[in-house]
Design goal:
Strand content: 5-15%
Radius of gyration: 18 Å
Strand order of the largest sheet: 3-2-1-4
Order of helices and strands: HEHEHEHHEHHHHEEHHE
């Protein structure tokens, strides 16, 4: 079980931190703990805003910051300007986190702080080149050091009464695009609109994987029947976002699913 006291001790040891705050369960617990341990002068939650962040996620970051009294800032990032990122090879996340560190670094330096990311132990086993970029930029992973798995993050958040405890995973929108397919503003906007439309229908755990004119929808196992029963509405919602063909993946939601295409399955 992750050690909340150990997490607090690690944060106190760092003194001042800038938390990369995406609003997901991991970064939310880290931001809350940093604020609760170090106070608003010692902890700043920083949300990187770009076309790869769903608009609802940015809004929820601001809402959480207001609810919890976090010292919060948002900053624009421009990873799409990097040809290496837009090319969307297996190291796309490396270039994204490099851009994050580029904008977070000066704020951290100004405050004599360390950039911290909400990486947990389970993340270490997946293909996550972004972790390498963050570490190279001087970031540290306090949840890993305190022994938190994803389940620990959710259980600890539940015990603390944080509403993010059961928030569905929400990776960046570029993760919906198969490796080798260029990432563009238009593609990200189409994915964002399709996923927003599905959430408006009541679906929670979802991904819209982008294959040109075809959308492959991944849903949580408990939502598959509802999608089939509401298939006319689902088709209309996704086609309204710009897709011609709408498919439902019978395997359901799998985080990191597109990593299967990488050598060794992304491992």
């Amino acid at each position: 079980m992750g050690d909340l006291d150990g997490l607090r001790a690690r944060l106190r040891g760092l003194g001042r931190v800038v938390v990369a705050f995406s609003g997901g369960a991991d970064s939310a617990l880290l931001a809350w703990a940093a604020h609760d341990t170090l106070g608003p002068d010692g902890a700043t939650a920083l949300t990187a805003v770009s076309p790869s962040l769903a608009p609802e996620e940015r809004d929820d970051c601001e809402a959480l910051a207001a609810e919890w009294g976090l010292s919060w800032r948002s900053v624009q990032t421009d990873e799409l300007a990097s040809p290496a990122y837009a090319a969307n090879d297996g190291d796309r996340c490396y270039h994204c986190k490099s851009e994050l560190m580029r904008v977070a670094g000066p704020l951290a330096a100004e405050r004599a702080a360390t950039v911290v990311l909400g990486v947990n132990l389970d993340d270490l086993g997946d293909h996550r080149p972004g972790q390498r970029a963050a570490a190279e930029g001087g970031a540290v992973f306090p949840l890993v050091e305190a022994g938190f798995t994803k389940a620990d993050v959710r259980e600890t958040s539940r015990r603390l009464g944080l509403r993010t405890w059961d928030k569905p995973a929400a990776a960046c929108l570029a993760s919906r695009v198969p490796y080798g397919t260029p990432v563009s503003l238009g593609v990200l906007d189409t994915v964002a609109r399709a996923e927003s439309a599905l959430r408006a229908l009541g679906f929670r755990q979802l991904r819209v994987r982008h294959y040109g004119e075809l959308a492959r929808i991944e849903l949580g196992p408990d939502e598959m029947d509802a999608a089939f029963l509401a298939r006319d509405d689902v088709v209309a919602a996704v086609q309204g976002a710009g897709y011609t063909y709408v498919t439902l993946d019978l395997e359901g939601f799998r985080s990191g699913n597109l990593n299967r295409a990488l050598p060794g399955g992304g491992r």
